[in-house]
Structures are given as C-alpha cells and as structure tokens.
Specification:
The protein has 6 helices and 9 strands. By secondary structure, it is of the alpha+beta class. Strands 2-3-4-5-1-6-9-8-7 form a 9-stranded antiparallel sheet. Helix 2 runs antiparallel to helix 6.
C-alpha cells in the first residue's frame, strides 16, 4: 500500500538584506503552534552564502523541521500513517500559515512557492513493475523516470524511482560518522549484505515559478497556492503507483 512519508513546503523571496535571526523572537512566537522546539541560528552576514540557512527549528516531536536562508524558507513534515485527505489538509493549513507569518514578520513578498510530496510503497520487483507501468520491455535492475511538464501557471514534476535496501554488517572501531558508514558500503560486496525491503519512491512536486518566469513582477498569492493544492489533489488521485 502506498504511503506518504514526507511533505516539503518552500517559499522563495527577494534576498533579505538582514540576517533573519534578527527577528527570531517574533518568528518563533508566531510559529509556536507548529514549532514548539528551540530556534537555532547563526551569525553569518547578509552579503554572501545566500542559500545557507540562518535559522533552523525542529518541533519537539521531531516531525516538523523549518529552515530559513536569505532567499527561501523550507518546511519539512514527516508523515506518520495519515491518509491523503489528512495530508492535503495539513498542507492547506500550514502553507497558508507560513505564508502569512513570513510576510508579516519580514515584510517580504513571496516570489513563488512549491509543494512536494514523497510516497513509498513496497513491491517485490519494483523496477519490473515500473517498466511495465511505462510500457518498457527491457529486463531492468533499476528504474528511474522524471516527467516534467507545465499546466496553467505551474511547473509539475512526477518522479518514480525503484529502490532496493541492503543491510550491511560494518566492522570498525571508534565512532564512525554516517559518511564513514556509507563509504564502507562502497567497498563491501553485495554478496556480504542481506537484502532488505524493495520499494518504489514517488515524488510529486508542483510550483508556480512558471508564472514568475513569464512576469518578473509576479508574486505568489494565497489564491495561487490554493490552485496548486487543488491540482495536487488531482495528481494524488491520478498518479497512483
């Protein structure tokens, strides 16, 4: 059964000329209903490393992560056993909340916004299943396809990937980092690994940058965002794995 596991909301705006941490108190007060954990920040100046997050906050249940740089803000939701309607409601409530808060606290205009949903479903032969779905006859070990297209004022991307999980027994002393563990798998034969789950990962992403690309004065509005949510509901129904 297909399960939604991640949702990402993203807002792009004209580059701030201040470090957003200068208003971190106002921001945290406005977002405390969603982000009840501590807000962390750095003191990087506002004239370089534009996409480097200046603010980061994680909810106490670790289900919501917020990051803000000089040019964008991202909200990452971990989804746990929620159906599509509940996820769409979560998106609808939170995308408008963060939109309003960012505009109010920083007096900025949202140039364009995006919504991304990641789903996963276990399959015995994910590459073969996807090959059949897209009428490809080759006997494939891995399968990945990205369909990008436009509709109205939106860019839409739908990505399917097959994936196999392998479990390795990594020997080594000390406190190995995640990178160390990954690097060890690169020099370990799969004959020494145990096969884990096999699954398909599906990503649906919709944004209104197309309208911004057509008109440099375009600004993302809540009406445009509601239009993206309606289109997203349609995609969730018609892009089943």
């Amino acid at each position: 059964m297909e399960k939604i596991r991640k949702v990402t909301l993203c807002y792009f705006f004209k580059r701030l000329d201040i470090n957003p941490k200068d208003k971190i108190k106002e921001l945290s007060d406005e977002l405390k209903s969603v982000l009840d954990g501590q807000f962390a920040f750095n003191n990087e100046e506002a004239n370089h490393l534009f996409s480097l997050p200046r603010i980061q906050a994680l909810s106490n249940d670790k289900m919501v992560l917020f990051q803000m740089s000089l040019i964008n803000a991202n909200v990452f939701f971990t989804i746990n056993e929620q159906d599509e309607d509940d996820v769409v409601l979560l998106i609808n409530n939170n995308i408008q909340l963060f939109y309003d808060v960012l505009k109010e606290v920083y007096n900025l205009d949202i140039l364009y916004s995006s919504i991304k949903i990641e789903s996963i479903e276990e399959k015995d032969n994910p590459a073969t299943y996807l090959a059949n779905k897209f009428n490809i006859s080759e006997d494939l070990e891995n399968f990945s396809i990205n369909r990008g297209y436009t509709k109205d004022n939106y860019y839409i991307n739908v990505i399917y990937n097959s994936s196999n999980e392998y479990n390795f027994d990594i020997l080594g002393g000390g406190n190995m980092s995640e990178q160390d563990l990954f690097d060890n798998t690169m020099i370990t034969s799969l004959s020494e690994a145990r096969m884990g789950s096999k699954f398909i990962i599906k990503i649906i992403e919709i944004n209104d940058r197309l309208a911004f690309n057509k008109d440099k004065d375009y600004l993302s509005s809540k009406e445009n965002i509601r239009g993206m949510i309606l289109e997203l509901k349609n995609l969730l129904q018609n892009e089943k794995i």
